[in-house]
Amino acid sequence: MPSFEELYGLTGSVISAVDLVKGIGHYAKLKVIDVPGATGYLDTNYEGKVDYALNSLEEVDLTMIHIESTDETGHVGKAELKIQAIEDFDGRVVGRVLEGIKRFGDYRILVMSDHPTPIDLRTHVNEPVPFAIYSSEDESVKNDSFVYTEKSASTSPVFISEGWKLLGMLVGKEI
């Protein structure tokens, strides 16, 4: 398997509490970063993940922060826990990344799930997932009325049937 750098011409890192994700990162020759207190659940060190990710961007071109709590709380099946996980992800990860990344100049960010885990089913389902790509260089996408939900994604004219191509779209190099 070619490395991430061989495929995209970029260096990268990955942050996750999940061994599978770390293994994929290692196999792709990404820098695998261990964050103290990263648990994969609601008590994970969200702030540490963001801090380590932003610091890694001093050395690499792209970093991936994997958050498992939204998946794990779906398996538990309690709406209040799933809501907490989503709110934590939004405020403690996405919000902090958007603030911290500005120091690097122009940037692109992709926010997405790897799969849905509905609380009523408590297991993974094979359904499309919403995603958002933002580029600080593209003035045409600056619209505060956009929302990031499954409902808005289901009515969007944008559908990527081959999800593995999404990363190439983000970095401007399709494989």
Question: Can you summarize this structure?
Answer:
This protein is 38% helix and 12% strand. It is of the alpha/beta class.
Inertia-based shape: globular
The number of distinct β-strands equals: 5
- Fill in the CATH topology: Alkaline Phosphatase, subunit A
Per CATH, the superfamily is: Alkaline Phosphatase, subunit A
Class by SSE composition: alpha/beta
CATH domain class: Alpha Beta
Number of domains: 1
Uncertain stretches of 5 or more adjacent residues: none
DSSP helix fraction: 25-40%
Please report which band the strand proportion falls in: under 5%, 5-15%, 15-25%, 25-35%, 35-45% or over 45%: 5-15%
CATH architecture: 3-Layer(aba) Sandwich
How far the N terminus sits from the C terminus, by CA atoms, comes to 13 Å
Summarize the biggest pleated sheet.
Answer: 3 strands, parallel
Count of helices?
7
Mean pLDDT over the full residue set: 92
Question: What is the C-alpha radius of gyration, as a whole number of Å?
Answer: 16 Å
Helix/strand order = HEHEHEHHEEHH
Strand order of the largest sheet: 2-1-3
